[in-house]
Design brief:
- There is one protein chain.
- The chain has 98 residues and is an all-alpha fold.
- It is built from six helices and no strands.
- The longest helix has 18 residues, at 62-79.
């Protein structure tokens, strides 16, 4: 997810990240918030006007973030081979390959 952010957008993301960590989502990372904005709200393209981008960032709710990240996890999980989950459901990779 290589995308160039200007300083104002980066600053707004950091401010929103700190607000979310203090009140609602203490374990959210910058990468997760960035993913939510770029892939979720902005659909792959940062708005051309910085003011619009900053407004979007500040209006994003914890509920929206959880919804978008949950959708991402489901999609990625659906694309992953079941053998990748052996450590979670019991057994190990060596047993799965036998």
């Amino acid at each position: 997810m290589e995308m160039k952010l200007n300083d104002e957008i980066t600053y707004a993301l950091m401010m929103r990240l700190n607000m979310l960590r203090r009140k609602e989502l203490p374990h959210i990372s910058f990468q997760e918030l960035f993913y939510v904005m770029v892939k979720g709200k902005w659909k792959g393209a940062i708005p051309t006007h910085t003011s619009v981008a900053i407004q979007n960032i500040m209006e994003t709710t914890a509920e929206e973030i959880v919804t978008i990240l949950t959708r991402q996890a489901l999609v990625e999980g659906g694309r992953t081979d079941i053998s990748e989950f052996n450590d979670l459901i019991g057994g190990n990779r060596d047993e799965a390959q036998k």
